[in-house]
Write a structure and sequence with these properties.
Belongs to the guanylate kinase family. This protein is α/β, with parallel strands linked by helices. The chain has 8 helices and 8 strands; from the N terminus they run E-H-E-E-H-E-E-H-E-H-E-H-H-H-E-H. It folds into 2 domains: 129 residues, 3-Layer(aba) Sandwich (Rossmann fold); 54 residues, Guanylate Kinase phosphate binding domain. Helix content is 41%, strand content 21%. A hairpin with a 2-residue loop joins strand 4 and strand 5. The two termini are 14 Å apart. The structure holds adenosine-5'-triphosphate (ATP) and ligand LQESDW3C. The ligand Nc1nc2c(ncn2[C@@H]2O[C@H](COP(=O)(O)O)[C@@H](O)[C@H]2O)c(=O)[nH]1 binds next to strand 4, strand 5 and helix 4.
């Protein structure tokens, strides 16, 4: 039987996690698990595609494999979401903060293939958030959060479990992703 795996894409805010999952979907038809959040949608984000956007009350009614608070908002991923994505493909992806990635490794073992993205210059991260259209006060709130600081380094619990990709140059990132997919994708 084909092993079901999930590519867990993690790293600091603005490091390119969502961009990586979009690339995996567009180039390899690897579906992304949609997660739940109480954060307000950004311009261009669509409910049921980018996130399940929830109120605090509706967020509390779901069954989560893990859930976190990140910069004042709640985020969570459900077992049902994973199962639904695995129905469509044995190789799927999900975007998580590093706390969520650690939980996935504990819960799923080798089924969780962790990709930790980093960007060499922290100023480049902030610049990318600005270019994405994030409001200045939102960026400041995020940069001041404990979660922002924590996600700047690969957590000890992921050492030996994560493949680190430096996403300074997109072409190099794409080459690294192509190699990773070749290793895990079933022909
Ligand atoms: N290698 C790169 N070079 C330049 N810009 C990039 C690169 N990779 C991604 N970006 C851009 O950086 C911005 C942030 O990327 P993305 O939204 O994928 O980050 P993220 O890690 O998902 O962020 P967050 O955790 O805040 O949701 C986007 O505008 C994206 O187009
Ligand atoms: N542990 C989890 N982290 C999640 C989940 N969904 C998204 N995220 C992470 O939250 C931050 C902020 O996301 P943003 O879209 O507001 O920029 C980022 O690190 C995401 O990877 C989840 O279900 N669980």
């Amino acid at each position: 039987m084909t092993t079901q795996r999930v590519l867990v894409v993690t790293g600091p805010t603005g490091s390119g996690k969502t961009t990586v999952c979009r690339y995996l979907l567009e180039n390899y038809q690897i579906p992304q698990v949609i997660t739940h959040t109480t954060r307000a949608p950004r311009d261009g984000e669509v409910n049921n595609r980018d996130y399940y956007f929830e109120t605090p009350a509706s967020f509390a009614t779901k069954h989560y494999l893990e859930h976190v608070t990140y910069s004042g908002n709640q985020y969570g991923s459900s077992r049902e979401g994973l199962a639904a994505a695995w129905q469509t493909s044995p190789l799927i992806s999900i975007v998580l903060d590093t706390a969520g990635a650690e939980t996935y490794v504990k819960a799923l073992g080798d089924q969780a293939v962790v990709i930790y993205l980093e960007v060499t210059q922290q100023a480049a991260l902030i610049e990318r958030l600005t270019q994405r259209g994030d409001a200045t006060e939102r960026i400041q709130q995020r940069v001041a959060s404990d979660e922002y600081e924590r996600d700047q380094q690969l957590p000890v619990g992921l050492v030996g479990h994560a493949q680190v990709i430096v996403n300074d140059d997109w072409q190099q990132t794409a080459v690294a992703l192509d190699a990773l997919v070749a290793k895990y994708r079933v022909a």
